[in-house]
Write a structure and sequence with these properties.
heterodimer; A: 442 residues; mainly alpha; two-stranded antiparallel ribbon; 21 helices; 2 strands; B: 440 residues; 0% strand
């Protein structure tokens, strides 16, 4: 019988008490909420109405709930049996922004559906995928995504400070940086639950501070007040497709599969001290369900999904991996998806709060990807591959005019910093074949 | 963190290497960084004779600065870091050159050099500056800045000097042919790097082949061809008469910040050389002495009427790629610079290297430097609040170059690489604030 590690509180098949599961489910759901901000970023870019944004948020929450349920199921050897709820994937953020600007919501959902198909198909070949696209490529892409997310946060701050009637308001300046200060304060000077939910607490307190300072537009407050508590979301059934967007979404799908495979491997490793090989069957099944989530959300009108990094990180740090918590998360998300007022409170979140959340998320993503990268920076070969790829990605962000002048056919591979970095890394990875002797200086 | 990367070093600082290696590696550094001389072309109102003289004096000062750096303490960093042009000074030169004033450029050079030298004596009092997070951030910022510049050079065959500064006005139309030449050059360099016997000279081989191909394909502009054809085989330079110190208070503040920036940059370079060669903890006293010699080199350059000469950051990337850090290269390198200072035709011939060929080299070097900078951070050994400070420094430092509202700020126009300066300052501030009550 395999030895159970001391730090494992609930294993995959352990069943916590009902109320404890609900409480843990709430905690995990709260940590997942910040990813919904990506929906707002995409909707804001096309000035979508609050109704549309709220509806898409609700659709995403519903599908997150359904996929959490499917991930948790295990019956006679079938099913992943994991607590690996998805969240709105930052991996698809850049592509979604491009798609929605080029072709509106139909193109966004069409391409997301396409990415879901790719993600699902690739999941059947995850074992081979990892050989062709090693973890360092996923890590460097996540690093650039972190920079992009942070950039969006800064852009929100700049937009907020450009609002004429607010820039002469002293109270505005105080409340503008309050969210970021609170996030750092709770995260760095507290322990336990306050530290864990630093972002959620900072958002709630800042939101209340801005509300009571009368800095929120009246139209927003009216919309929230008039919104019904319960609302059945409407699904979107118009789709479009563009071939020149396939490469970015395929790369996004690859990163999602690799990322999830790494996450499930980490969850498996803390189940027992004796684990030598990852359970590829479970990884494959978990990946298929995750891909199915993106497929369904694209079909019904939402943004691409991938296993939530914050929930996985919480599971690993707490040693809580029970799939029954996945059921709790599923129930909570499905119920909340019908609470339209909650969705609108999220839609009308003040820009300064969104900015602070995105900057903090960007920093967290960048740091965690640097940690992963450092494990792979052990030979000159990887230095060159990752270094040149990261530089290529940065150059896209720093000199966008340069890349916008490239021929259309090439733009498919250089459409964003993430895509460019991935393409460069993949090409260099093929050129610099790994030496058989791992001790060789290369 | 162990592994192959700890075996970067092939020839250490005190290793005696063959005459052939000394010569070829010295030549490699010279060819790679000679393009920095083109920056002088953008100093307005200089006659052809002035340009030639300026370049000659700069080369002589570069030779002297490199030799100074090779000396042991109290004046010298006891290492080989070639001096050819000065990255921290590009922004200053550009700002004063726009006013059409070489005396002001020289005056600024002298002031910053004196400040850098004086600041070195204060360095031991700033112990908090000497930690691996700062070195890692400096190296990462330097590497990214250089390599991204290299990518821009891929598409602009003629615009090296103007595109060094992000946000400066320059022609944004790209040339695909130029990018292909750059890609080809990079491929040659990477291919040579894979062959162990060619690794020490991979950049030189790549650049020479790219340069030759560029000449055949017509990348050498008539402007530079004219400069070369008009230049004589022998020339005795004259020292430019006079320098000016007519600076406003804002400009003096700017020069102090540039001196700080140059010192930070040098600290990072010194730390990485020590780390690779000695593998122990970084000694701030070595950095102090090296910074003194760097400051003296800059001051002398200004006094003699040449471009500021200080250690070139990209050279570290060159050394990391080749694994050769031998100090003996300093003497050959200085000799090369000194000889060429009197042969203007060869000096100006160097300026005909297409920017895309140079870009290929700097991408290679910069990428390796940036990754070593990340590795240097050693996040796992840092406390959580320090990791958070590093995260904010990395993110906000990177955004300085990405967000137009940031890099167009007047303050950042004073720095060639504002991201480096900002990421260090942001790290120090966050480290101080987030570490309240935790440092014990």
């Amino acid at each position: 019988m395999s030895e159970r590690p001391e730090n494992l509180v609930y294993g995959f098949n352990d069943k916590p008490a009902f109320f404890k599961s609900i409480l843990l489910g709430f905690q995990f759901t709260l940590s997942n909420f910040t990813s919904l901000s990506f929906v707002l970023i995409v909707m804001t870019s096309i000035h979508a109405s609050s109704l549309t944004s709220g509806n898409i948020l609700s659709v995403c929450m519903l599908i997150i709930g359904i996929i959490s349920l499917l991930q948790s199921l295990k019956f006679r050897g079938h099913g992943a049996g994991l607590c690996a709820p998805p969240s709105v994937a930052p991996t698809y953020l850049a592509q979604s922004l491009v798609a929605v600007k080029l072709g509106g919501l139909p193109l966004l959902f069409g391409m997301t559906f396409f990415a879901g198909i790719i993600q699902t198909v690739l999941s059947f070949f995850v074992r081979f995928l990892k050989r062709i696209f090693p973890t360092e490529i996923a890590s460097l892409i996540l690093f650039l995504i972190g920079i992009d997310v942070g950039y969006l946060g800064v852009k929100f701050y700049i937009e907020a400070f450009s609002t004429p009637h607010l820039t002469h308001n002293t109270l505005f300046f105080i409340t503008a940086f309050l969210p970021l200060v609170l996030i750092l304060f709770f995260d760095q000077f507290f322990k336990g639950s306050i530290k864990l939910y630093s972002i959620a607490l900072a958002v709630i307190i800042s939101y209340l501070a801005i509300y009571f300072s009368n800095l929120m537009p009246n139209s927003d407050l009216q919309a929230i007040a008039n919104a019904p508590w319960f609302h059945v979301m409407s699904f979107h059934f118009r789709y479009a497709f563009r071939w020149d967007l396939t490469v970015p979404f395929i790369i996004g799908a690859i990163v999602c599969v690799i990322k999830l495979s790494g996450a499930i491997t980490a969850l498996q490793e803390i189940q027992s001290k004796d684990i030598k090989q990852p359970d590829m069957n479970q990884i494959s099944q978990g990946s298929i369900i995750d891909g199915f989530g993106t497929l369904i959300v694209g079909l019904l009108g939402g943004l691409g999904l991938n296993a939530s990094s914050s929930v996985i990180a919480l599971s690993l740090s707490k040693g809580i991996t029970s799939r029954y918590i996945g059921f709790a998360i599923a129930g909570i998300m499905i119920v909340l998806s019908f609470v339209f007022k909650l969705a609108l409170i999220f839609v009308f979140i003040p820009k300064v709060i969104m900015a602070a959340v995105l900057i903090e998320l960007g920093v967290t993503l960048a740091l965690s990807s640097v940690r992963m990268l450092m494990a792979t920076l052990n030979c000159m070969r990887n230095f060159i591959i990752i270094g040149v790829a990261i530089v290529a990605g940065f150059s896209h962000s720093i000199y966008p005019d340069l890349y916008s002048q490239l021929p259309t056919d090439i733009k498919m591979f250089t459409g964003s910093s993430m895509i460019l970095a991935a393409v460069v890394a993949i090409v260099l990875n093929f050129i610099f074949i790994k030496p058989k002797d791992s001790n060789k200086v290369y | 963190m162990s592994g192959e990367i700890d075996n970067l070093l092939i020839h250490g600082i005190n290793k005696r290497i063959s005459a052939k290696d000394n010569l070829l590696v010295a030549l490699q550094h010279f060819v790679k960084f000679s393009l920095l001389l083109t920056y002088v072309i953008f100093i307005a109102q200089l006659t052809h004779s002035d340009i030639t003289s300026f370049i000659s004096i700069s080369l002589i000062m570069g030779a002297l600065a490199t030799l100074l750096m090779s000396f042991r303490k109290p004046i010298g960093g006891n290492c080989f870091i070639p001096a050819q042009g000065s990255v921290p000074f590009f922004a200053v030169i550009y700002l004063f050159a726009k006013q059409g004033s070489l005396p002001l450029v020289l005056g600024a050079t002298i002031l910053v050099g004196l400040f850098q030298t004086a600041f070195s004596f204060l360095l031991p009092y700033f112990k908090f500056l000497f930690n691996k997070s700062i070195y890692g951030l400096i190296l990462f910022s330097l590497g990214i800045w250089a390599a991204v510049l290299g990518i821009s050079e891929f598409f602009h065959p003629h615009d090296l000097g103007q595109i060094v500064l992000h946000g400066a006005n320059w022609n944004t139309a790209i040339q695909i042919k130029s990018a292909l030449l750059g890609l080809f050059t990079l491929a040659v360099m990477l291919g040579c790097w894979r062959i162990r016997s060619l690794r020490p000279y991979c950049i030189l081989i790549g650049m020479l082949i790219g340069w030759a191909l560029g000449a055949v394909l017509g990348f050498i502009t008539p402007e530079y061809s004219t400069l070369v054809s008009q230049a004589g085989w022998f020339y005795f330079p004259h020292i430019h008469p006079g320098f000016s110190f007519h600076f406003s208070v804002t400009q003096i503040f700017m020069l102090i910040l540039v001196g700080l920036y140059a010192s930070f940059e040098f600290m990072g370079l010194s730390a990485i050389i020590q780390k690779i060669n000695y593998k122990g903890e970084v000694d701030p006293i070595e950095a102090k002495h090296g910074n003194i010699s760097a400051g003296i080199g800059v001051t002398l350059s200004g006094l003699c009427g040449g471009m500021a000469q200080s250690p070139v950051p990209g050279s570290i990337g060159d050394m990391m790629i080749t694994g050769i850090f031998a100090k003996s290269i300093s003497y050959i390198y200085a000799l090369i610079l000194f000889i060429i200072a009197f042969i203007p035709k060869i000096a100006l011939l160097m300026t005909t290297i297409p920017a895309s060929v140079n870009g290929a080299a700097i991408i290679f070097m910069g990428a390796v430097m940036a990754m070593y900078g990340l590795r240097f951070l050693e996040l796992s050994t840092l406390k959580p609040y320090q990791q958070k400070a590093v995260g904010y420094a990395l993110l906000l430092g990177a955004l300085i170059n990405i967000v137009p509202q940031f890099y167009n700020l007047k303050l950042f126009s004073w720095f060639t690489n504002p991201a480096l300066f900002c990421s260090v300052i942001i790290f120090i501030i966050f480290n101080l604030i987030l570490g309240i009550g935790k440092r014990s």
